[in-house]
Every structure is written in structure tokens, then in C-alpha cells.
């Protein structure tokens, strides 16, 4: 930093006794003359004051725009500031780390952007951030050199990165660990020993995460606290690295102490609206049980939420411990400090470049003037996540004063519109080609529309649909669709053309009701030239239909759906429970009732085991009740994605005749159960791996639901690609019969996992 104040020797003594006659600011680009005058604090007509001029120079430097400032005087008593502004960063480049398309975002996280003014301290800070990020990936001895290339009125910065070598943890030792299994201790660490097949996705590679190393001792100590060892201490880890092989050994020194049990639990500082006994009945820390700090944290969170639901947004719950070292017990008193009731001052939304503010606000259950509620806050975040518009949703509390707060709703939008084209091959379908143009959030309005077609050896499908989930931002929805399809089943071909309309209403935050009507014209043709292609069975008696069957179907359906999940594509918590009752018979040729039910439960274990494992259970049931006529194409089948994987779509159904020349009869009852476990495969690529087991039953009456039972298992690659969600399924049928049509590979695009 240079600060120069020059006075002509011959005139200095005279000028110091004169007033300033004029002030000039030369070389300013980012500041106006008026702003410069305000910053300097010096006015024409004031006497010369060297200390005041020196202070003005310091104030100009604090603005961050200048690399040099020179102040001089003129012969007639004028004051002249000469500014040299910092160079603009015109180019940012990185060699040896990160791909070119990722570098802009990486530089932003480092605190640098093109167009910024060059500041050596800011560049050095960015270098430290990059070094820390690379070390977090397990690289040792990272070296970063920065080339500053001067250009005309700008500079180009080139970061040359040598990532060094990765450190692999070969051995971890817990010295002094006697009462707990060392595997349980290691499971909580960020730095673990390399697994036997550590290179395989889902297993630990053993790569050291140096930025987490200093915290691992606390993680191990927390395991002791979860098992009642309140006096346990775990030292900081000592890592010894072999400079030749980059293999490392890590040692922790542990003093376990004694195990404590809970003597009693109390709650103090209750406010009106809360009942002590009711609250205690929900606590996880129980008297007589081994103390567990993880349960204590859940109790703190629960109590804080109950208080916050009454408007005390910044309530605190402090646990006080009274340890009895003689009988190894601990008494816990939760003290509630509610503070003041808080109302919402404003809801500030950011990150929505496409989605309109009003679309977001209609899913936020707190508005300016409302009393704060923790449950409302959580429900708002989950509701936004279920829309499928956003990759990430955060709602932060910003305190305005003791009685009011702002909600900062920060969203990161995901791709909702896509042009998709794909293909594949199946042993049953042959070559498949599909394409679609769709958007779940047209122009940020929340309206969902799409047009698509699918072509294969056995199928041709076209569809056009539109759905507005909140008409005029109300609780009502409206949708419509038209479609045309052709499908070759095992023993018959079907052609359909139809349309549907639906209206719905959001009954509660999680409960949605709908009423729909659909009409279709259908043509079914015997593909095997057999007189029994459309045979139906009625209590053992065959009823033969004509070789070709043409019919119209008119259906009204009433449905209810409950959804408390936290995300549209990959939910980690919540339930889905739905059902519908339909009747075909008011118009058309078909007369039957159909009832459907579905249930889904999702549970993420990351908070418990520090690993993003998601467990899923899904059940789907459907029953048809004949009221005069049900054509075979309207009956029930199983197989394929969304059913029993490992079998060809629509290939499982009751049949008659020999296995080599079967006549499909169709089912009227169906029940499918699915259990899945999903694990992260690549966070950067947004890929997950799901292991699944499907069990399905289908029959022609309530007493013969298990007339046919099929099972399948396998693994599915869940990829949230730039084109939308893609699901690649590799499945195996369990004990298939010789006549079963199995499928080892299927895929879908655009569906939730």
C-alpha cells in the first residue's frame, strides 16, 4: 500500500496557512466525484490538514478499488488525488483439477469470479479454500501455484494444481477400548480402514479425509456417550504416514471410565399449553436405562419443537446433569427457556430463477403476521420438496427483533423440463424407442404438461397430458389427457384410443381428493387365431367370446391420497397412503367396480448411522368386482417395473389350457409387496443403487388370491440424470416355471424411485 502526500518545498509553508481552493479526483472508474467527496470528508474552503488528508487516503483504500493513491497540491492551493484502480480479473483457469465445465462453480465457491477486482489477499484466501477441498478428498502434499498474467487493464489468473498423493488408512487402533466393540467405534469415523473390496461402490476405500481427522476423536467419544460412559475420553488421532507407500496407521488413546444409568428425568420451566406428564411420556431417555446422549438430543429437539409450536421460535432447552459417581447414576433436568413469542415479519424467497414466487408461497404455511410454528415450518419444507421442482430446499430463521423474525426460503431449482429420447432392448418387447417433451413446471407456473410416444416390436403409444395442481393458486386442481395405444399381449392384440379429465382438491396439507372420468374405445384381436383367446371362467364354466372384441369403456373414479414424504423423487421420510374406487358402466359396454389401494413407507438412516441408507416398503392392491361384463384386457396382470420385476410386463395372470398353448383368463384380485434398500453410488453424479425384493399374488376370487405367486429380486441403478430420473433395473425371477416369460433388464425414464 502506497500513501503519498507531496508539497512543493517552496510553497508548503504558505499552503499550510491557506485554505483549499479546489479538489480534483483523477482516475476514478468505480466511484463518482460526489461519492469520492463524501468518502474523503474534505471540502473546498477548508484549511489544509495533513492528518485529515492522510485519513482520507486510508478511507479510500478501505473501499477495495485502488492499488495506489497519490495526493499532490497545485500552486494556487488546489488538492489533487491521483488514483490507480486495481486490475479486473478477465480470466480464471485451473489446470490439474476439475473439469472445464465445473470450474466456474468451483471458483465461485472459492470466492472468485470473472469481473472481480484483483486482490492478492482474496486470491490467497481462494488458494487456501481449494487446498482444503482437495485435502478433504484424501490428497496429501497438495501444491497450488498461481500465475498472474498481466493484460491491458486486467489480469488472468491460472491455478496450477498438483494434487499430490492419496493417503490410504491401513490400520486403526483404539488403545484402551475394552467395553465397546471397536467395529462400532470405527463405523462412526469419517476415516476408516480400507474394506476388503473397498473399490466397489458402497464400500469404504480407506482414503483419508484429512479435514475430518480432527473430529473423529469426538465421534468415537460420542459412541461411548451413547452407551452410558459419561466420563470417557478419546484422544486426538495420531496418524503415521509411510512417505513411500502413502499408507497410514491411526491410533486413538481411550480412557473409558464407568457406565451410568438414568436415575430420574425432570422438566422445568413449563409454559401454558404444555403438560409435564404428557411430554415425559414421549421422551426417549428413560429412568433405569443406560444413559444415551443420542436419545437426549432427540428429547431436546422434541421439547424445543413443542415449545416452538406455541410461537416461541427461539426457545432453548438446556439439559442439566447431576452425576452420582458412587452408584453410577445420573439425574437429568430439562430446563425450558422459552423467550418471547415470535411472529413472522416477512417471507423472503431466493434461488428461484424460473419458478414464480407465488408458486412457492402457496406451499409455505407461514405468512407475514402469523405466529411461528415449528411444525408449520417442517411441513412447508416437505411440501416444497414433494413438488419435484427443486433439488434442494432450505428454510432459515432470521431474527429481526425479540418479537419478530424473517423466514429465508432458499431453493435450488432442478431440471423440470426435458426433451428425452431413449431406447433399449428386451427379450419380449424387442427393440424399443421412446421420446417425450415434458415439463413439470412450465415457465415456473407449476403446471405439468407433456407429449410422448413409445415404439417397440409389440407396442405403439402416444399421449398428451396437462395438469394444473393449483388453479388460480387455489386448493383445486384440474387435468386432462388424450392417448392412443397398441399393444401385443401373449394371446391377443389391443388397440385403444381415449381421453380423461380430472378435478381435485387439497383437503388438508397431506390429504388430496380427486374425481376423474375417462372414456376409451378398445379393439382386441385374437393374435393366435384361437377360438378361446378371450375365454373367461365363471365358477369353472368356460364362456367363449367372439374372436374379435370391440368395446367402449366409461369410468368414473373417486380417489383419496395421503402424502407426507419430504421429496418427490427420492423421499427419505414419510408415508404415502392412497385408495380409489371406480365404476365402469355409465355408458360404454363394460360394467364392473374396481378398488385400488397403495401404501409406501420411507425411512432414511443417515441421522442414525451416518450413512445415506434409505429403506422403502411399498404395497399395491387392486380388486375388480364383475357387475355384468369385464373384458379380458381390463382384467389384472403382473410383471415388469412397478409390479414383479424379473418377469416380462403383463405376462403373469391366471390361464387355462396346456402351458404350451395357454388361454389367458385374467385376474380380479392382485397384491404386490416390495422391499428396497437404496444406497449412494456417486453423490457428484446423483446416482444411487437400490437392492429390491418383489412378491406378487394374483387370482380370480378373494379365496384364490394366491392362485399365482411370483417373486423377483435384483438391483436397480437410480440416476438423476440431466435428462431426468432414469431407472435401470437388473432383475432375476425366483423359481420361474418353464412357460414364464422372464426379463433380466428393464428401464424407465421420468418416474420417481
From TrEMBL:
The keyword GTP-binding does not apply. One of its GO terms (cellular component) is cell outer membrane. Pfam families: Omp85, POTRA. It is found in: Membrane. Residues 18-86, 260-339, 342-414 form the POTRA domain. InterPro entries: Bac_surfAg_D15, BamA/TamA_POTRA, D15-like, OM_assembly_BamA, POTRA. GO terms for biological process: membrane assembly. Keywords: Cell outer membrane, Membrane, Repeat, Signal, Transmembrane, Transmembrane beta strand. This is Outer membrane protein assembly factor BamA. The lineage of its organism: Bacteria, Pseudomonadati, Campylobacterota, Epsilonproteobacteria, Campylobacterales.
